[in-house]
Amino acid sequence: MIEITMVEPTVALYGPSYDQTVEVLDEVIRESGARYALLLDRKGFVLAHRRALWASKPPPLDSLATLVANNAAAIQALAKILGEAQFQEQVHQGKDVGLFLEETGSLALLVIIFDSSAPLGRIKLFGKRAAKLLAKIAAEATVAPDKLGIDSEYSEGASALLDDLFGTSS
Amino acid sequence: MIEITMVEPTVALYGPSYDQTVEVLDEVIRESGARYALLLDRKGFVLAHRRALWASKPPPLDSLATLVANNAAAIQALAKILGEAQFQEQVHQGKDVGLFLEETGSLALLVIIFDSSAPLGRIKLFGKRAAKLLAKIAAEATVAPDKLGIDSEYSEGASALLDDLFGTSS
Questions:
Q1: Can you list the domains of chain A with their CATH numbers?
Q2: What is the distance between the alpha carbons of residues B164 and B160, in angstroms, rounded to a whole number?
């Protein structure tokens, strides 16, 4: 029997780790003048998001998170060609809106969306500072694979498949 | 009969346009302290590339160009979600190396690769200035589709296929 398992987040923020994350995101927004701040895991799940008091409704965050996470993964091929382990930081600048992305430990990504009028220096400064704090929080909130049950389910499914194919039973 | 046509560059730089491009790229490198400067077309073809006198052999440029062009195309989905027509400018920053990308008209991309020790402000300033000059040069050097013969070959191939299928002759 094969079970289909959905992709699950690598990091789960509950209680105090979520509260701390929200506090850090709020501070980034306050200090940098940014519009939105999000913490994503590398698979593209939104772990937490905040917006400035004055900011309008944000864009569809799940789609945004998926695109950002996929793009961050793709860009690593480019880093490798240039002899870098990875690009820690990315800035995408449009006419009115900018997007700042900072690696947050090995598991998460900090995304800051800002108006082009906001000072990029402050976005980067407070973004980097926040990413360091968030990396610690995320590392402590990592979900162990067996907690999610993906690995055991997968291996049971795989064993069952092999049994069917070769007629052995374990 | 169907003919398979390869992807061809949209822009071709010959004679004076190539010389002008090289001049602009050399100036960017000289003024900004960058290591390499490349002009690509959006499909990922290297139109021209230069390196600093002191710079070592560059990374495989064709692979780099393909990755950059694909990535630049993918990132536009992100821009659209944020209500931007496109991101004109991207900066990817690693520990030792950085990559600056600026839209160069609608056809080309300027890529500047720099050491992390180079001042980002200068890279951006001279990068933007160069992109404007290069956009003009590239626009004048655009290859008309019928010059490449892709369109006529494609339509002939398609007609022949339809003839085979439906037994009509044109």
A1: 15-166 (3.30.450.30)
A2: 6
B51 touches B41 (CB < 8 A): no
B69 CB-contact burial (10 Å; exposed 0-12 / middle 13-18 / buried 19+) = buried
Residues B120, A124 contacting (CB under 8 angstroms): no
Residue A41's nearest CA partner among A92, A103, A100, A85 is A103
The tens digit of pLDDT for each residue in A37-75 reads 999 999 999 999 999 999 888 889 999 999 999 999 889
Q: Which residue has the higher pLDDT, B6 or A129?
A: A129
Q: Record the pTM.
A: 0.79
Q: Do B89 and A92 touch (CB under 8 A)?
A: yes
Is some CB atom of chain B closer than 8 A to the CB atom of A147?
Answer: no
Start-to-end CA span in chain A (Å): 14
In this predicted complex, what is the ipTM?
Answer: 0.76
Nearest CA in chain B to A58: B82
